[in-house]
Design goal:
Elements (H helix, E strand, L loop, with lengths): L4 E10 L6 E7 L8 E2 L12 E9 L4 E12 L2 E6 L2 H9 L3 H37 L13 H5 L4 H4 L5 H22 L1
Parallel strand pairs: 1-3
Antiparallel strand pairs: 1-2, 4-5, 5-6
Helix pairs in contact: 2-5
The structure holds zinc ion (ZN).
Zinc ion binds next to loops.
Length: 187
């Protein structure tokens, strides 16, 4: 079995046989890295302008549906999914610099968010190692707060109550989950 990427649709399709919702299609047209792509994501190289044809697969029927989608890629960016080649070409013709710039802004914002998330996870991991290697979890209370508090500033709340590294990780993950839930309410 080869590798593929998954492209998620903005609007779902439905299996013509059983009416099961089809939210995505697999494709081997791009990098084939088992990546998940959504509309306006960057799927391939900047010089690529093309339409990729894929047959929809129904997971419930476990077979191809005979229904095709046409995925429009402009300058390596997923522009949209159409029911016909003509419609997909129209999507490509409709692209302009203004649209691309706005999308680029959104992409960059998302990228920046991911980088920050990644950094905070790395920092947390480093802090967990230091905290427990230095035996801070067993140190007596009443010691003067100093520079250490700044070093562990962002992760102190997970570290100070944790009895071991596993406990610290669980607290960190729980806080992330809570943040995500709160974000989802607003989005
Ligand atoms: Zn089906």
């Amino acid at each position: 079995m080869g590798m593929f990427d998954t492209i998620y649709f903005d609007k779902p399709y439905y299996c013509p046989k059983c009416r099961t919702r089809i939210d995505s299609t697999q494709t081997k047209a791009f990098e084939q890295t088992l990546a998940n792509f959504y509309m306006t994501d960057c799927v391939s190289h900047a010089e690529e302008i093309r339409v990729v044809k894929e047959e929809l697969f129904c997971n419930k029927c476990s077979e191809f549906t005979g229904q095709y989608v046409y995925i429009a890629v402009f300058r390596g960016i997923l522009v949209g999914v159409a029911d016909s080649l003509i419609e997909a070409r129209y999507m490509l013709n409709d692209m302009n610099l203004e649209k691309l710039l706005l999308w680029y802004h959104d992409l960059y914002k998302n990228y920046d968010k991911k980088v920050r998330e990644n950094e905070s996870i790395l920092r947390f991991m480093r802090n967990v190692v230091e905290w427990f290697e230095q035996g801070r979890h067993v140190k007596k209370k009443g010691k003067k707060a100093g520079i250490d508090h700044i070093v562990f500033l962002f992760d102190r709340e997970y570290l100070k109550k944790a009895k071991d590294p596993l406990d610290a990780i669980k607290r960190f993950l729980a806080a992330r989950q809570k943040e995500k839930k709160e974000r989802d309410v607003f989005e």
